[in-house]
Amino acid sequence: MPSNIGDPEARRRGFAWKDARRELGFPEGPCNIGWYCSDRISELGMGPKLALIWEAVDGTIRRFTYDDIRVYSNAYAKYLLGLGLAPGDRVAVFSERVPELYIGIIGGLKAGLVMQPLFSAFGEDALEKRIVNAETSAILTNRKLTFRVRKIRERCPSLRHIVINDPGDLEMQPGEVHFGIDNAEPVESFACFPATEETPSLLHYTSGTTGQPKGALHVHGSLPAQALTTKWVLDVRDDDIYWCTADPGWVTGVSYGVIGPWALGTTQYVLEAGFIIDRWYKAIQDQKITVWYSAPTAIRMLMKEGEEKVKQFDLSSLRHLCSVGEPLNPEAVVWSERVYGLPFLDTWWQTETGAIQVTNVPGMPVRPGSMGKPFPGVTATVLAHDFTEIREPNQQGLLALRPPWPSMFRTYWRNESAYQSKFKNGWYVTGDRARIDEDGYFWFMGRDDDVINTAGHLVGPFEIESALLEHEAVAESAAIGKPDPVNMEVVKAFVALKPGFEPNKKLEMSIMNFIRKKLSPLAMPQEIEFVEKLPKTRSGKIMRRVLRAQELGQDVGDLSTLDDN
Amino acid sequence: MSEDLKQKIIAYIREEYLEDDSMVLNENTPLISSGIVDSFSMVSLKMYLEEELGIKMTDEEASTEAFDTVNSILVLVGKKLAGKK
Fold first, then answer.
1. Whole-model pTM above 0.80?
2. Is B34 within 8 Å of A274 when comparing Cβ atoms?
3. Which of A377, A402, A431 is the C-terminal boundary of a domain?
4. Which of B33, B44, B47 is facing A274, going by the closest CB pair?
5. Nearest-CA neighbor of A206 among A393, A62, A349?
6. Angle at which helices B42-53 and B3-17 pack, to 10 degrees?
7. What is the ipTM, given to two decimal places?
8. Mean pLDDT in each 10-residue stretch from start to end of chain A (565 residues)?
9. Are residues A132 and A201 in the same domain?
10. Which of A400, A431, A462 is the last residue of a domain?
11. pLDDT for res A564
């Protein structure tokens, strides 16, 4: 069967974003994402079609049709407005992967609320900073995470409503309410907020080298980009069972775990359980997954487990595999082709871009290790440090995109200057470095800053260093990304102790657990090196590049600004 | 494997990883698949076991499967302790 995209080169030549809605068969006019992903599908006569197959940790399966998504998202929309929330208010979604997470996002979008996904493993500080910054009014959560929300509640004055989907026998505190699918009355019809293309939809926080995480604000007009990339890159079709393994606490889990597949009326599968190899393979076998969108870290863990494990399961339903989050190493592409009979196609994009930008697509010869080529409608290049385009092939430069595109972020929340600083000489500068070969394939070369990419998630060193200083034993600290064969990078911290503290394993564990609880397991240093002092400039700035070079056994470069006192 | 060790590990996980005091945690409770511990947090749990028991586990041995319940951890730890003798 031909792929959805057809001839990729012809598409690249003949496509412009203004044609996207027509290409998708989407009506013109208001473009509320929630409506497109639920009501519209029912109106097309696909209401009884399965939208979600959800598997709980204990193996229980629940199935939701598009009609179910419609009436329960209506219920969420009505309920949230009934709490006194108004369009534009920020509503955080801080939840494990339960149906209410997915349906709640659609409901909030229908009501015109700005949904703010927060990773369920975020610790207290990470959670608090994002809620305070966004002045979040309400949070959708579940019982287990309510305890963490309670710990920060008093420090988040804007947070008025804690909506818990499964409180059970929990003694509710002021502001806490029980609302979930189990106690919601289905609502047949709801007048969706008449969103325009510029109406804010989602606020995704992302980390940079300096300062605290920034909220990338997206709009309802992003939908054509998410839907068309789902159709052309992920190649989903009417009879597919699609599985995006990303958590909706991050942008992939929303753009391609909620919006993209449901905008196309796709049946998607969600596994609540964490990463266990047998469970993943069993899910593919039992649910007959056909399209699988995963991440290099997971793929490398599957590789480590080897081919014997694969042979224990029937994975013959798979027909298309894609990957995102960090560069997919060539070995993983070759391995997946040999073991699954299909290569994983690498896709590149980031929180700010909202949708896939540079990618491999069906019908395009795969060059293992390459990110692929720009998606139709996307203009990408590499820039020299003076922000001029590099024309010669295979020269490394700053990966940049020509704005605008539909799913482009519209600002960093209350930080317009940081937003403006991302645009140089008419290009959006991504922070990644790449090269373009003579045939137009893009190759990821690394980050252009100190941001740590661990298991596909960006972690800001400043956030870790700030949190480390709050530990009673830490006098000063630095965090870098240390290369890791599975996670691409892991956090390594260098710590100088206060007088009276001695380096030992117990202290190391104490510091690790401290960061895990404050920020997240991703930010937890996997290794701590105790040092007497840290390399700093004369103005007191920590020279992470020196630490990184020492760690990698590389030349430390120019040390003329090093304060060696 | 001693009951003491089992209870010690359960107590450590409850102290370090659980926020809901009312949650049942026993030797069969899924840890990784239920999200109580994840593959990143496992590093500090592994370090605790190594320090407490004087053993070393390779990354291959300390898989998410091996750490999914206290029982499976005990099986792994038991092998390592037997190897020490």
1. yes
2. yes
3. A431
4. B33
5. A349
6. 140
7. 0.92
8. 94 92 90 97 98 97 98 98 98 98 98 97 95 98 96 97 97 97 97 97 89 93 98 98 97 98 98 94 98 95 92 98 92 95 96 98 95 97 97 96 98 97 97 96 91 90 92 94 93 95 95 95 95 86 89 79 64
9. yes
10. A431
11. 63
For residue B2, the distance in angstroms to the closest alpha carbon of chain A comes to 24
Tell me which residue of A451, A448, A443 sits closest to A430, measured CA to CA: A448
Same domain? A383 vs A459: no
Number of A/B CB contacts below 8 angstroms equals 75
Structure tokens, A251: 């942008």
- What CATH superfamily is the domain B3-84? ACP-like (1.10.1200.10)
- Residue-wise pLDDT tens digits, B8-63: 999 999 999 998 888 889 999 999 988 899 888 999 999 999 999 999 999 889 99
Sheet order of strands, A214-219 included: A176-178, A161-164, A138-141, A90-94, A114-118, A200-206, A214-219, A411-412
Q: Per-domain residue ranges for chain B? A: 3-84
Amino acid at A193: F
What's the total number of domains in chain A?
A: 2
Residues A430-449, buried b or exposed e (16+ Cβ, 10 A)? bbbbbbbeeeebbbbeebbb
Q: What is the pLDDT of residues A303-339, one digit of tens each?
A: 988 899 999 999 999 999 999 988 899 999 999 999 9
Identify the bridge partners of residue A302 per DSSP, sorted by sequence position. Answer: none
Chain B interface includes A410 (CB < 8 A): no
Is residue A97 one of the residues assigned to a domain? yes
| Helices A99-110 and A66-82, axial angle in degrees (round to 10) | 60
A500 and A529 together in one domain: yes
CB contact under 8 A, A513 and B20: no
CA angle A200, A203, A209 (to 5 degrees): 135
Describe the crossing of helices A296-305 and A277-287 by its angle, rounded to 10 degrees.
100
